[in-house]
Hints:
Blueprint lengths: L1 H24 L4 E13 L11 E7 L1 E14 L2 E9 L3 E7 L9 E22 L4 E18 L8 E18 L5 E13 L3 E15 L2
Antiparallel strand pairs: 1-3, 1-10, 2-5, 3-4, 4-6, 5-6, 6-7, 7-8, 8-9, 9-10
Amino acid sequence: xxxxxxxxxxxxxxxxxxxxxxxxxxxxxxxxxxxxxxxxxxxxxxxxxxxxxxxxxxxxxxxxxxxxxxxxxxxxxxxxxxxxxxxxxxxxxxxxxxxxxxxxxxxxxxxxxxxxxxxxxxxxxxxxxxxxxxxxxxxxxxxxxxxxxxxxxxxxxxxxxxxxxxxxxxxxxxxxxxxxxxxxxxxxxxxxxxxxxxxxxxxxxxxxxxxxx
Length: 213
């Protein structure tokens, strides 16, 4: 009698444990939004700007960048995201003697601006015991770039370019408080400048996201 009673107790406990585990393992699906900020780097070199007339050249390839996004989690291990990505501006400066094909004589400055729309698939690896989720991302960056020149011989001061490039990244997110999550990661893509050069663009960010489910 007691053996049968204990058997039912063990079976009931096992069933409840299974239901509890299933509830934790059940995929969470729905919309979420987020915002990241950090440091962007554009691998543009002096050769892009110089025309042989520049001395005392300096170039700053890094600066503040941000990414705003919204996504839909289709499965515990997969989501789709769209967003707006603003890379860091780069700044080139120096002095021109005016004998080249681009710059007027005197102090000169060049600047690049890059921004665009992102569309990515996200692979997710939840580590429930650590309250952590690892992810990899891959998709497209529909970019628009602008190269600005302070003072040129032909009075053309800006060149626009646009296109699409592959965009990929890795990162992690951790549950924080009240449904908010902290997300950090690195993304890499390629961007065209002035219809004549492709450069590598990298962004390292940290930010917050919030599920709407």
